[in-house]
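Q: How would the structure tokens look for this protein?
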Amino acid sequence: MSALEDAGEARLTALASVSGLPKSSAHRLLDQLVALGAVERSWGVYRMGPRIFRLGRAWQPYPGLRAASNGTVRWLAETTGATVAICVLHEGRTMAAAGLPGEVAELAPMRPGETWPAMTAAGKVLLAGAPAGLPLDPLPGPWRRTAQEIRERGAAFDREELVPGVACVAVPLHGPRGELIASLVAMVPAGRKLETMAETLTLSTRVIEEGLRRVPRQATRPVPRRVPLPPEQRGASAAPRPGLGSRQPDVKPC
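A: Here is the predicted structure in token form.
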């Protein structure tokens, strides 16, 4: 499956070679996967099947997170022009669990399931809040001080450290018991005021966290609530769309 993921589509001989399996074994396994719908075969070429697509869409890093965050993530992307993502730590790297592309999509593409080095803004927030004893790769020498600053500030920044021309800000997202479950991230063109964006993201996490508390007690999808934005954080061509939620949280504008 990993060989097929990397290839996109391939014939039996190529998949057997890449995966290091005898051709007969690869053929037998592929036949079983085709029968399950995990792989599809057309004219001797194999590709991912629809069952993998359905299973992938069902995955989320925390129960109810997709339902609680979809509306807020969409609203943030539309009103700020930012690429907005919910990220988690996965195998020592930062992984986008969900999100929408924005103005910097060409410079920094974001697709659910994509991973980056752990020491991004999103990863730093997650590492700073990681429980003691979590197995991690060796961290930079001054990391302990940096982690304390992130916890006190409630945000981490990346000013073109990963991608030239792209700045990033991330804030922690907590579950109903106060546990850190993900980070909410915005990627914007370099030069944007990240501190103001951090305030907007923090207010947005409160909406998502409230939704997480309500999801287990209701079958309907929670209605996302808007967070007020200052003019400088609104995308040039983006405007709020009707239907993304109309109630306002009791907070002051950023």
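The beta strands are 9-11, 39-42, 45-48, 83-90, 93-100, 115-117, 156-159, 166-174, 180-189.

Helices lie at 2-7, 12-19, 23-36, 50-58, 65-80, 121-128, 143-153, 194-214.

Upvote if useful.
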